[in-house]
From TrEMBL:
The organism's taxonomic lineage, starting at the top: Eukaryota, Viridiplantae, Streptophyta, Embryophyta, Tracheophyta
Chain segments carrying region Disordered: 1-32
Keywords attached to this entry: Coiled coil, Metal-binding, Repeat, Zinc, Zinc-finger
Name of this protein: C3H1-type domain-containing protein
MF GO annotations: mRNA binding; zinc ion binding
Sequence ranges assigned to domain C3H1-type in this UniProt record: 177-205, 215-243
Biased segments, Low complexity type: 13-28
Coiled-coil stretches noted in the UniProt entry, renumbered to this chain: 74-101
Entry superkingdom: Eukaryota
Pfam families: zf-CCCH
Zn finger (C3H1-type) start-end: 177-205, 215-243
Keyword Transferase: no
Length: 252
């Protein structure tokens, strides 16, 4: 049996015909980098939008809070202005009423002066708002109507004080009550169904001075002293106003 002889040349490491096989080198993966960059930009853009929305919501809330802080004092000022407007209107009405009252009082002073009375002996301007009648002390009335008096007559009158008081009481009894008090109907509503025939006065100008006992309204009413309401009201002959000494007598 015969074998074929190898006719190939011997191996020479320095031979130029030697070829070396190396693995194929592939280019970088650019598609993966582009995808990562796109996702990063998307996330950044979404985060930026959420931050902008949160900032806008915060600014809107700040504006609402600032509006509430501004509108609350404005509402208070508006309420105070309305209250002041009503008070001003009430003051104007009260001022008009006082002007009419003082005008009537001036007219009354002129009438009393022409009759020979002293205005101070007839009415106290401090009590003008609660005038129900005009009280003239009897001694003042006697002095106003007394003519051609001298010292001896005054001395004799002092000695006979009791007799004069009795005479004064008789004179007070005979003076009548016509137009000596303010009409309640007229005072409350401004009108009176009796008109000119009413026996009470429709205003201070119609009030007639009433002669009173010298001790009229000089002593404190016992009902007021003990803390009760006097049933006689302004018609009571005793005093209802308390001074410092009267307050010391009040029951504790």
């Amino acid at each position: 049996m015969e074998y074929d002889r190898d006719t190939s040349p011997p191996f020479d490491p320095n031979s130029s015909n030697l070829t070396t096989t190396t693995p194929n080198s592939s280019p970088p993966d650019f598609a993966t980098d582009n995808m990562s960059s796109s996702m990063y930009h998307s996330i950044f853009h979404a985060t930026e939008q959420r931050l902008n929305q949160a900032r806008m919501v915060f600014e809107h809330q700040q504006l609402c809070d600032h509006y509430d802080l501004c509108i609350s004092p404005l509402k208070e000022f508006t309420g105070e202005m309305e209250t002041l407007r009503r008070e001003n209107a009430d003051l104007r009405l009260a001022n008009s009423a006082l002007l009419r009252l003082f005008s009537s009082f001036d007219y009354l002073n002129k009438e009393i002066a022409s009759a020979g009375f002293s205005p101070k002996s007839v009415m106290d301007p401090k009590q003008l708002g609660n005038v129900k009648n005009i009280s003239v002390p009897t001694t003042h009335y006697v002095k106003a109507n007394q003519t051609n008096t001298d010292t001896d007559l005054i001395r004799r009158r002092l000695e006979k004080r009791e007799e004069e008081e009795k005479a004064a009481e008789m004179e007070m009894y005979n003076q009548g009550m016509w137009k000596t008090e303010i009409c309640n109907k007229w005072e409350q509503t401004g009108t009176c169904p009796y008109g000119v025939n009413c026996q009470f006065a429709h205003g201070i100008t119609e009030l007639r001075p009433v002669m009173r006992h010298p001790k009229y309204k000089t002593q404190l009413c016992r009902m007021v002293l003990y803390g009760h309401k006097c049933p006689y009201g302004h018609r009571c002959h005793f005093r209802h106003s308390l001074n410092h000494q009267d307050r010391l007598l009040l029951p504790r």
